[in-house]
Amino acid sequence: MILTDVLIKPILTEKANLQHEKLKTYAFKVSKKANKLEIKKAIEVFYGVTVVSVNTAVAPGKNKSRQTKTGVVQGIKPSYKKAFVTVAKEETIDLFANI
Question: Residue 63: which H helix or E strand, with range?
């Protein structure tokens, strides 16, 4: 798999920020086909840090419905894969550098 296709975007939530402060762990939305070795290599190449560990989780799709003029519209949000990347103690990733 090409490294540019592995990482989709960082996850910037309150829970992810707390994990970053306490555990030096960053959360990323990644391709569902990517494995831990590809994720580790992509993080090291793009951000220039040493990755200690990578944990992954697949968030399941959720049922959603909304009320419209024509009635109730039902659908399913797609599932996605998350990667929790722990970097070395003295290193950090600046997620806001490209803004």
Answer: strand 63-68
Burial, 7: exposed, middle or buried (Cβ in 10 Å; 0-12, 13-18, 19+)?
Answer: buried
Give 34-48 pLDDT, tens digit per residue. Answer: 999 999 999 999 999
Looking at the domain assignment, is residue 95 inside a domain? no
Cβ–Cβ under 8 Å, residues 82 and 13: no
Helix/strand/coil for 25: strand
**Confidence tier at 64 by pLDDT (50, 70, 90):** very high
Q: Is residue 57 part of a domain?
A: yes
Residue 71's alpha-carbon distances to 32, 60, 64, 68, in angstroms, are: 34, 26, 14, 5
What are the two backbone dihedrals, phi and then psi, of residue 73, each rounded to the nearest 5 degrees?
-105, 125
Q: For the chain, how many structural domains are there in total?
A: 1
Chain-centroid distance, C-alpha 32: 11
